[in-house]
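User: My collaborator sent over this chain with a note saying "see what the structure looks like." That's all I know about it. Can you take a look?
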Amino acid sequence: MGSDCKASSAKTASSSSSWKSLLDGWLGTIRVTREKVSGGMPEQPPPLVTDQDLAAVTPVVAPSSDLHVFTFAELSAATEGFTSGNYVGAGEFGAVYRGFLEDGVRPGLPAQHVAVKVSRGHDYRIEILLKEAMFLAQVQLRHPCLVKMIGYCYERWNRLLVYEFMDHGSLDNYLSKCTHFVMPWSTRLSIALATAKALASLHGEKKPLICGDFKASNILLDSVIDRPS
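Assistant: Without extra context I'll predict from the sequence alone. Here is the result:
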């Protein structure tokens, strides 16, 4: 799933088959026709979606949604052209870049650092991940543990998601990648408790949002990590 979870305010990735039907009914589905070849050969994989397919599944956002729609040019400017210096990492959806939105880019949107996810391609799988992200954006106000989605770009073949930027990165950076800093056990316990509360909140929904990809790299830290002085 494409959303992450805060810790300490721990924010975590969430995935659920229980609301898949709701996704398809609310946001619509992509109809991809499978072409069969003659001669008894196995059915070929679904082709890439076409412009016509994509036109039918433009993200549907509730009228009350506070999501912002950005242009590709605006997000390119925010990340300085997606330079390697702003590269943060990569996930299932694609590469993630640090960016900065200037004040006034959108009415009511203050200047802030953001994380911009850029899709790996434009196939059926990306469209499903996009729909999942849009769904979670509609419930994020009820779940402060979810990393806040600020907006998106859906322009021709460009698929980008914009989230609040978590200054301290993911938990796995401190547990397995950081060799010069040992996270105190008190901090680890705090993160574990915050993450447990986040999961309980997601799983306690009437239609539970089950986290199907729970791991340290999907737990993002938003508070100051105590470092030795």
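A starting point for your reply to your collaborator: Confidence is low (pLDDT under 50) at residues 14-49, 53-57.
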